[in-house]
What we know:
The structure is a homodimer.
Chain A: E1 4-14, H1 22-26, E2 32-36, H2 41-44, H3 47-54, E3 59-63, H4 72-86, E4 90-95, H5 97-109, H6 117-120, E5 132-136, E6 148-153, E7 158-163, E8 171-174, H7 184-202, H8 209-231, H9 236-247, H10 264-276, H11 280-295, H12 301-312, H13 320-337, H14 354-364, H15 376-386
Parallel strand pairs in A: 1-8, 2-3, 2-4, 4-5, 5-8
Antiparallel strand pairs in A: 6-7
Amino acid sequence: xxxFDYMTxxxxxxxxxxxxxxPAALAPIGxxxxxTYGGGSIKRIGLYDKVLExxxxxxxxxxxxxxxxxxxxxxxxxxxxxxxxxxxxVILAVGGGSVLDCSKAIAAGACYDGDPWxxxxxxxxxxxxxxxxxxxxxxxxxxxxxxxxxxxxxxxxDKIGYIDPLLYPAVSFLDPTYTFSVSRxxxxxxxxxxxxxxxxxxxxEDTTLLNDGFCESMLxxxxxxxxxxxxxxxxxxxxxxxxxxxxxxxxxILSLGNSPSGWPCHGIEHALSGYYDITHGEGLAIITPRxxxxxxxxxxxxxxxxxGINVFGIDPSLDPWEIARKAxxxxxxxxxxxxxxxxxxxxxxxxxxxxxxxxxxxxxxxLEEAYVPLDEQAIKEILIASL
Amino acid sequence: xxxFDYMTxxxxxxxxxxxxxxPAALAPIGxxxxxTYGGGSIKRIGLYDKVLExxxxxxxxxxxxxxxxxxxxxxxxxxxxxxxxxxxxVILAVGGGSVLDCSKAIAAGACYDGDPWxxxxxxxxxxxxxxxxxxxxxxxxxxxxxxxxxxxxxxxxDKIGYIDPLLYPAVSFLDPTYTFSVSRxxxxxxxxxxxxxxxxxxxxEDTTLLNDGFCESMLxxxxxxxxxxxxxxxxxxxxxxxxxxxxxxxxxILSLGNSPSGWPCHGIEHALSGYYDITHGEGLAIITPRxxxxxxxxxxxxxxxxxGINVFGIDPSLDPWEIARKAxxxxxxxxxxxxxxxxxxxxxxxxxxxxxxxxxxxxxxxLEEAYVPLDEQAIKEILIASL
Lengths: 387, 387
């Protein structure tokens, strides 16, 4: 078991109607608020009006239009400029993980005099960040309970995970009813995203019985409740449990004391959505079983056997290699069964830039340090198998 | 799924040698330190000297001699007096859960002008508390990651759980090597304590698949690693995993969104150790299977079946009632197998005060609100079955 140093200072306010607590939570943090959101779904579900009604008496500046795979230019740069111009005291992110990720980069950039890209690329360590409060409307990324965000830069195809303890939200509001209107496509991508977050932590060299059990519980719950959400989008209990599962995805609570795994599927997927702007959860679902195929070996067999038996209920009396292969097949089949396109070609990615992406990943993502080290050739093979 | 509002602001610093980080962690919190500890085990293992060496330059006032089932008089009262006399800025608790629990009550009492008992009994709500840092030497109570403490008052036989968000430790240091010298008796009691914390949360009306899985993982890990700790007290990996399991025991992470269970075994056990000063974990182990026997019914059968199959691996094809009874027997047998005396008579409790204790529990512990409501007669029957 590895040493660790861990703290999550975020307050989670969870359940139906909890947004009523927003003014009381926000008031001691700040009165000048940058309200960040995306393409307008929060207006369709009435949340935008609700927030403005609750925040009468606060000074609100808006940053709308934050896109999936949030962009450095214009969103982060615009947000930083607005914060500086208006003396913003707190950022209120309302939406999914992309809105929140973007808001985290803005929060750090607003307290820095230079180019915010310096912070995101760790050229300069942030000394401070504005406090962040969020209202989450999509169960997926877990950004509401972690200290990271992923920012894309279209001019360089970079998609960078920016992590700093300064970026934990102060308060995250999670009302599962706001996820009722999430589309089938985005619900499925959210399930795949959270499942992959768990898988990335489960497949590691040195894990504990406790963490293995936590991860297996997450995966079983995400599959059962994810399916229920797709069958009945207004199933409160299923939406709520899926939302809580997603919240734990990147918070380290599933892997405290494990050896680092390197999050290889994320390393690979960041290039896919950096180059092609695809939906992150779909990219992860496509990569995951191909990565599993690639890393299955005598060394990793035991992990796959445990995964297969405890997550998918595969008969433990079978030959271990058969269990492992069935487990990989079951992973693929589950993603396919919830409607995720399982080939890169289906999401608009052909073989024309495979070599370029493999090189970009090998240079930037440090996957030689992953649970099973991946060099440029290995990454290329995984990408080709995913076509 | 129930609404919840949750935050754990404690920093966990975990692993071999982490105590070296103590001065850096303590310095920004305060320089005037009340060092609290128990009967001297921290001197035997060299930790006392280590702490004093690390804290050269800090001003240290000592409160030694805190007993198991920590006492309001003299420990809490002495600690509060010392804090006020010396202008203490931070409490450093070094020892097991009792030392830390006592320190929490001192932390609140030091910031209050009246009788600290007002706070512990919630007659007055604490407005502030001194910050607390701890170094844990016993895996059991989970006090290092929760906001509660249990304080005993010998003149009234009261043993009261005092909970307030002000009481979360600022930093908890957990070095599993400090638990190598914990006796067989205390190791077993710690296993039972953490298992019961989990069971108290698992047996509830409305739970989630996720939380059920988390609890089942905790119980399996505690049994496997607990046995290893007893077989080889210096098995680092087992001691470490047991320590982390115990840390999660009372932190709510195992039951966020569950309906409240009322923690009935704790309600009953508090009277046992309040009246007879027995070891808390042993009292819980004795009560747990008798309480289970009492609450097994058509309504609760499903919980017991799930518990039996997922925690003890009982054959799911058996009759549900048989699975449930085997699960209760397995709970009893596990506690017995790790050397816990499983009858109240073995820990010095006869039938002479059963009625008085049952009445005290019924009046003070609110068990009419438990998962299965317990009135005075029910409590008496559970106590008699435990003799």
